[in-house]
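When time allows, look over one protein, given below as sequence and tokens. The question is which stretches look regular and which look disordered:
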Amino acid sequence: MTREPLPTPTVGRRTQTAAALAILASYAAVKSGRSSTLDRRAAKALAYPLGRRVDMLVAAGTDLGSVYGLAGIVGVLAASGRRRAATDVALAGLAAWGAAQGTKPLIGRERPYVVEGADRLVAVPAGSSWPSGHVAVAGAMSSALVPHVGRGRRRWLHLGAAAVAVSRCYVGVHHFTDVVAGWGVGVLSEALTRGARRGWAHRRRG
């Protein structure tokens, strides 16, 4: 039985460079205190009250970036026969989650509902605020799925990751600079995971 080759990655070096810069810029801004003004302005825009029904919808949708959301998406892909895509998404998502959790102690940032009195619309999240683990997982999943879909559908993947990022600010559990860093962590985690798998496959063939 011939092994199915790994799909060619379509998240290029420019995107990976942008992801690395996003993490570094966010980290520097938060550590220096220069992120405060930007975060407050973003919070005011992204946490604009839209009504109870929208609150409930966003509070449910934000968990697409959780490990439970990851498990659900992987399960749907596997059940539909897209096992390669399911594997890619699972590995990238878990790597992003681990990377986000591992970097949270670097800053130990308080959540916006703690320091700024933001309305929290979801259960109390674990860990500190920077970077956003949900956005990291969403960014990794969207990047992992890009090679598996046509060009016309790729924009929806990126919009989905962006929606999770906005939702984390809307529900009051993340600052804007948290989600910027989370996106960077997700993109780089997917790239590193795919690179490691390709290297392993090459060694096995050799």
About this structure: The radius of gyration is 17 Å.
